[in-house]
Specification:
Elements (H helix, E strand, L loop, with lengths): L6 H21 L5 E10 L2 E10 L1 H7 L1 H4 L3 H12 L1 H4 L5 E4 L2 E4 L2 H15 L7 H16 L2 E9 L3 E3 L3 E5 L2 E5 L2 H9 L1 H4 L5 H6 L2 E13 L11 H19 L8 E6 L9 E5 L11 E3 L4 H16 L3 H10 L1
Parallel strand pairs: 6-12
Antiparallel strand pairs: 1-2, 3-4, 3-9, 5-9, 5-10, 7-8, 8-9, 10-11
């Protein structure tokens, strides 16, 4: 990660976090907890356990009235306002990748404090944790783009290798069990378009990294073909089409998960997009063997070149026979 660009702002944020943690220690009282479901995969089996963890955001919000009265809070907010890169975003609607969000210095400070409390050991102060949290926020303000990781779990797809690279920032991967567990654990927030069995039985996915342009108070080009969701959907469609043209088999995808790879303001961190109906295919399940990989990669290069320069009528024909 990059070095600090605004030392005065960093110092103010550090003082704010130290003072806030001291305030929370003085307040004392029970720290709220929350329970979430944790899913553990063992081969083809899955178990479910209820796990309890400290709910730091609620604890901070419960004591927010005292935190915002701290002198270090006022100083930190003022330093946010002094930085031209930061100030350009504040109190404005920023279109960023998958959402439009309003950026506020107070929310940024709260997010940094949440991160510090979650990643360190209780109500202590870890300067390394604080620096990581600060830099992720600062990088957002100093960058013109936000990077997103798009995961498209494949229904009915198997391969004998863990990963194949299809070009810059595009791969087909074996989903790690811990990532499948997180997807299942977040399923109530993802939406009804994603069926439980899709996640449970999808062991492979298309992984795509795309960048979205930040548009501050000017979203006329926000919903275009260059929007991260649309770019990722098209690339995922191309991968599925290329694989199905290379070899017969039954597979597709029914949803896509989009998450930012770094800090973004609340509400701009990601999305889940699902198709309205389940996918059904009549041919046998799709298996890409180890010996298929090299011939497929050669085919993929030719397919992408022809597909990228093909006409709409050619694309329509490809999809009909894919």
């Amino acid at each position: 990660m990059n070095s600090v660009k605004n030392q005065a702002l960093y110092d103010a944020v550090r003082n704010f976090c130290q003072a806030s943690i001291s305030h929370l220690k003085e307040v004392g009282g029970p720290i709220p907890a929350r329970t979430h479901e944790e899913y553990v995969f063992e081969g083809n089996r899955m178990s479910q356990t209820a796990v309890q963890e400290i709910n730091w955001p609620i604890f901070v919000i419960q004591n927010l009235s005292g935190i915002v009265e701290l002198e270090s809070y006022r100083v930190a907010v003022a330093e946010f306002e002094k930085d031209d890169k930061v100030k350009n975003h504040l109190h404005k609607l920023v279109h960023v990748g998958v959402a439009s969000v309003s950026v506020d210095a107070s929310d940024c400070l709260q997010d940094i404090l949440f991160h510090v409390l979650k990643d360190q050991d209780g109500l202590t102060f870890d300067k390394d944790v604080l620096k990581d949290a600060y830099l992720s926020v600062e990088d957002y303000f100093y960058s013109d783009t936000v990077e997103y990781r798009c995961i498209v779990p494949l229904d009915g797809f198997e391969m004998e290798v863990d990963r194949i690279e299809l070009g810059e920032r595009i791969s087909v991967i074996r989903l790690p069990d811990d990532e499948r567990s997180k997807i299942l654990g977040n399923s109530p927030m993802i939406g009804s378009s994603i069926r439980f069995d899709n996640v449970l039985f999808s062991k492979f996915a298309v992984e795509i990294f795309v960048k979205g342009q930040k548009l501050v108070d000017g979203g006329e080009s926000y919903l275009t073909d260059n929007h991260p969701d649309r770019v990722a959907q098209k690339l995922a469609d191309d991968v599925v089409l290329g694989l199905r043209l290379f070899k017969s088999g039954r597979f597709g995808f029914s949803y896509m998960l989009v998450t930012s790879t770094s800090w973004v303001p609340r509400g701009g961190g990601g999305s889940a997009r699902g198709k309205s109906v389940p996918i059904h295919y009549r041919s046998p399940r799709y298996l890409l063997t180890r010996s298929d990989v090299e011939p497929f990669l050669s085919w993929w290069d030719k397919f992408r070149e022809a597909h990228n320069y093909g006409s709409k009528s050619i694309d329509t024909s490809l999809r009909r026979f894919g």
